[in-house]
Amino acid sequence: GSTIGIIGGGQLGRMLAVAAARLGFHTVILEPEAGCPAAQVANRQITAPYDDEKALAELAQTCDVITYEFENVPVEAAQKLVEKKRVYPPPIALEVSQDRFREKAFLNDCGIETAPWQLVNDSAGLAAALAAFDGRGILKTRRMGYDGKGQVRFRGDGSDDVAGALASIGNAPAILEGFVAFTREVSVIAARDRLGNIRCYDIAENVHSNGILASSTVPSAISATTADTARQAAGKLLHALDYVGVLGLEFFVLPDGTLLANEFAPRVHNSGHWTEAACAVSQFEQHIRAIAGLPLGETSRHSDCVMENLIGDDVSRVPEILSEPFAVLNLYGKAEARPGRKMGHVTRLKTSK
Ligand code: ATP
Ligand code: MG
Ligand code: MG
């Protein structure tokens, strides 16, 4: 059988490795942290930094196709691998999604609407951008933000610490986004194969708590027209990136159904975990199919469901979850349940039984 290389050893890599194994592939994980969630279920781990020259050479030598499970893989590392082996998704998807400025500009260039935004390089830039957005908005670092980290909210009610805001994000280059009064947040998980075929899963409705995804519900309460628009946006983005693999695209939904894209992840996505329980082909298998040159699988769901993330101490509820008849549990093999740490998830299928 052939071998798939995965850069990154977290839970997404773990679930990709399981899906790959079920299709008869071997997997090699490149990850500096020994005993990581992905390596526990993979055939092999190369324990080294993501940009380690020797490790990358070894990965290219031992694998037929290489992918990644997080968006902050160094672009140069991915580009080096491209010279030797197939790398999917293409490194341009990393490049764009690693920088919120490039990401927003790329989405807009694809004809995908976002919240209004402005580049912020210094305090004068911040003042000008805030004035343009009536004093309300969210300052976000251009790079390395996740789970709501690297963000400052401005309410425009006199309580904001505008002077201290840039320092609180380490004076990093940033953007200011206008504040979106959304009624809900949704995401689309879409796949594109090597031939350019596209398939989308049903749109999930996402609830965040403290900046971290708490739950995804399918179906979402959005209209069929809004759902169509979301899928079309994903299609445009996938084609523009000449993408191969699975991608997650997040949106805000306005009261009138208008969609504003927030960000995309060039990988399998937390808001697509429900697919393993409610679809014949999960997002993880879909990604492996796409990158391995296999035909894409069915994306329709056989059940309505709610996926709940198990964060930190939530894992103490596992015994009760195990007694629920239609709860599909997935734990990531992380030893320590630190606050804010994603330990697993459970998808509850809605069934009349
Ligand atoms: P992750 O990658 O974990 O999804 P992140 O750190 O990249 O998170 P965002 O997705 O940009 O951050 O923002 C996190 C959450 O903050 C959003 O899902 C949304 O709930 C809220 N949020 C972000 N931007 C805005 C905005 N412009 N207006 C209103 N709410 C926002
Ligand atoms: Mg993000
Ligand atoms: Mg997000």
Automatic annotation (TrEMBL):
Signal peptide: none annotated. Its EC number is 6.3.4.18. One of its GO terms (molecular function) is phosphoribosylaminoimidazole carboxylase activity. The keyword Ligase applies. Pathway: Purine metabolism; IMP biosynthesis via de novo pathway; 5-amino-1-(5-phospho-D-ribosyl)imidazole-4-carboxylate from 5-amino-1-(5-phospho-D-ribosyl)imidazole (N5-CAIR route): step 1/2. GO terms for biological process: 'de novo' IMP biosynthetic process. It catalyses: 5-amino-1-(5-phospho-beta-D-ribosyl)imidazole + hydrogencarbonate + ATP = 5-carboxyamino-1-(5-phospho-D-ribosyl)imidazole + ADP + phosphate + 2 H(+). GO terms for cellular component: cytosol. It holds the Pfam family ATP-grasp. Gene3D superfamilies: 3.40.50.20, ATP-grasp fold, A domain, ATP-grasp fold, B domain. SUPFAM superfamilies: Glutathione synthetase ATP-binding domain-like (SSF56059), PreATP-grasp domain (SSF52440), Rudiment single hybrid motif (SSF51246). Residues 104-292 form the ATP-grasp domain. InterPro entries: ATP-grasp, ATP-grasp_carboxylate-amine, ATP_grasp_subdomain_1, PreATP-grasp_dom_sf, PurK, PurK_C, PurT/PurK_preATP-grasp, Rudment_hybrid_motif. Keywords: ATP-binding, Ligase, Nucleotide-binding, Purine biosynthesis. ATP binds at residues 100, 140, 145-151, 177-180, 185, 208, 262-263. Catalyzes the ATP-dependent conversion of 5-aminoimidazole ribonucleotide (AIR) and HCO(3)(-) to N5-carboxyaminoimidazole ribonucleotide (N5-CAIR). HAMAP family: PurK. Belongs to the PurK/PurT family. Homodimer. This is N5-carboxyaminoimidazole ribonucleotide synthase. It comes from Phyllobacterium salinisoli. The gene is purK.
